[in-house]
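Researcher: Good morning. I'm working through a list of sequences from a screen, and I'd like to move beyond sequence-only analysis. For each chain I'm collecting a predicted structure so we can compare shapes side by side. This is the next one on the list. No need for commentary yet; just the structure.
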Amino acid sequence: VLGARLALVKAHGTSSTRVDAGLWRDSVESTLRRVVEVPDEAQFASFVADMRQLVGTVLRYEARFRADGLLGEDEVVRTVAAWDLGRASKMARWGRGARYATRAEMNDALVRVSAGVRNAYSSWAQFSAAYVLGRCLHFDEERFGDWYTSVREAHHALLRAPGSPWRTVPFRLPG
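Model: Good morning. Structure tokens for this chain:
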């Protein structure tokens, strides 16, 4: 769904990342119809309807993120890869803690995750907003409950506290 929005932005050659919701939904549907083999039309129609609804879900979350200071006025979440990358980092550390990985193996995994993060995002704030959206899409069901508020507070703390790694560790390492 997020990729369809980026494709629309690119196709229209605009600097704005915001697109018309109806056009976005239509793009999602036409892309799915073009690239997905349809073994069962009823099941596929249900899937397409769910993906069209997801556009509205993303828009509502992004509006809330703007109101709560996770996104700037003209910002959108371009990809929720942060959710998977954040969990991959945790899994590497859990693997080490459970002694299924050596320190070197854990560090190698974390270096690869870090490269993925830097390829997808340009700042800690961007990475965090994407992580929050991924988490909310997975668990929150538009309740804006603890699945959202706890990471919203962590986002603000990490961006504001003077000693936070997000304030003391550069997002892009030199060299």
